[in-house]
Design a protein that fits this description.
Elements: E1 3-9, E2 17-22, E3 30-39, H1 42-49, E4 60-61, E5 65-73, E6 85-89, E7 103-107, E8 112-113, H2 120-123, H3 127-138, E9 164-168, H4 173-184, E10 189-194, H5 199-205, E11 209-212, H6 218-226, E12 232-235, H7 240-249, E13 257-260, E14 279-282, H8 291-306, E15 314-317, H9 325-333, E16 340-344
Parallel strand pairs: 9-10, 9-12, 10-11, 12-13, 13-14, 15-16
Antiparallel strand pairs: 1-2, 1-4, 3-5, 3-7, 3-16, 5-6, 6-8
Helix pairs in contact: 1-9, 3-4, 6-7
Bound molecules: NADP nicotinamide-adenine-dinucleotide phosphate.
């Protein structure tokens, strides 16, 4: 059996250890990728600490963001060749797709080539955050906004004169993509919240109004910019404080559309009530689950990157290869990473 190095998550609640496991072989529709950069996400530590056992086969492998080089092809794959630089999102349900190992596999239609000017480390910032923001803004399980013309998804027309959107947490990885998508579809006022040191970044990405998230009365500050008619908000942070801010800022006299990244609280009574017909949705960013959108995303993201319509978040490489996974998870969990994606290099182990 040919093995590879992998970060093995061996049992509920235990942080992973470096070990070996078989190299996954591609099925006939799959591509095998040598993982050169693996992005670290909040989901990775949450899977350990909140016991999301999505696949009961142990050891599990964590990591959803893969960037690397095609190393083998299934017999039916025609759109890639060995050596192509590619990126994809791993499903949490299949450890053979996961990022914190040296080789991973994915279906050929949920993979994108990486343009030459984008490094592997930058490419590893894209899959989960880029798709989460896409679902948040354009899928019917999110805000259901009319998408950029390259995407065909079910959407509803925007009510006339709705030119503003609120994106809570513009500096988060998800927020950085959300701002850029909002700009692509022509919102005139893109209002966001971020720490002061990230205001320049989010402005460059397309935010038109940035509020220091550490100040008071955020909702009042947002309303001063948007007026009383704000209908759309996407909360990329999703805690009681951010929910309250967004709901207070959203209009009272019309139905409003609010999407968030964590489950909607069961008890909504502590939050401001909105007009009948309002929607509050939690997104689930799985290209496998929302396959139609997933396939379209992986067709179009390469072009958006190539033409600089979309810029990636900054990446920071953790020294130590797969040995650095736990330190990276701890840094993300403790909120020590601002406006960046930590990246693991599995071959530096
Ligand atoms: N539902 C899904 O399918 C799905 C998919 C992906 C992610 N998520 C969830 O989405 C959340 C964001 O993920 P991520 O990868 O984008 O996180 P991230 O980049 O690690 O988030 C860190 C950023 O959050 C910002 N932040 C923290 N608290 C804030 C607040 N109260 N207001 C505004 N900004 C705040 C910080 O901004 P400053 O540095 O400017 O302070 C920081 O830069 C996580 O909870 C993650 O688990 C859900």
């Amino acid at each position: 059996m040919i093995t590879q190095k992998a970060s093995l998550y061996k049992g509920k609640g235990e942080y992973p250890v470096l070990g070996e496991r078989p190299i996954p072989s591609p099925s006939e529709e799959q591509v095998q990728v040598k993982v050169l950069s693996a992005g670290v996400n909040p989901l990775d530590w949450k899977r350990i600490e909140y016991d999301f056992v999505v696949n009961p086969i142990w050891p599990q492998i964590l990591g959803c963001d893969v960037a690397g080089e095609v190393s083998a092809l299934g017999s039916k794959v025609e759109n890639f060749k060995v050596g192509d630089r590619v990126l994809f999102q791993a499903s949490s349900e299949d450890r053979n797709q996961a990022a914190f190992q040296q080789y991973a596999v994915q279906n050929h239609d949920l993979i994108s080539k990486i343009p030459n000017h984008i490094s592997d480390d930058r490419a590893a910032t894209i899959p989960l955050a880029g798709f989460t923001a896409l679902v948040g803004l354009f899928h019917y399980t999110g805000l259901g906004l009319h998408p950029p013309r390259e995407l065909q998804v079910r959407s509803r027309p925007r009510p006339p004169n709705t030119t503003s959107i609120l994106i809570i947490g513009g500096a988060s990885n998800v927020g950085q993509f959300a701002i850029q998508y909002a700009k692509m579809v022509g919102f005139e006022k893109i209002i966001t919240t971020a720490s002061r040191e990230n205001h320049e970044l989010v402005t460059k990405l397309g935010a038109t109004h940035v509020i220091d998230r550490h100040t008071c009365d955020l909702a009042e500050q947002i309303k001063e910019i948007s007026g009383e008619d704000l209908r759309y908000a996407f909360d990329t942070i999703s805690n009681d404080e951010t929910y309250t801010t967004a709901l207070r800022a959203l209009a009272d006299r019309h139905p409003v559309y609010f999407a968030c990244v964590l489950p909607v609280p069961e008890d909504m009574s502590r939050f401001p009530k909105k007009a009948d017909g309002s929607e509050w949705k939690a997104v689930f960013a799985s290209p496998q689950q929302w396959r139609e959108l997933g396939v379209q995303f992986y067709k179009v993201i390469g072009t958006w990157l190539e033409t600089n319509q979309i810029k990636t978040p900054e990446s920071v490489v953790m020294p130590g290869g797969l040995d650095a996974v736990n330190e990276a998870l701890k840094m993300v969990k403790e909120g020590k990473v601002s406006a960046k994606k930590l990246v693991i290099k599995p071959w530096a182990s």
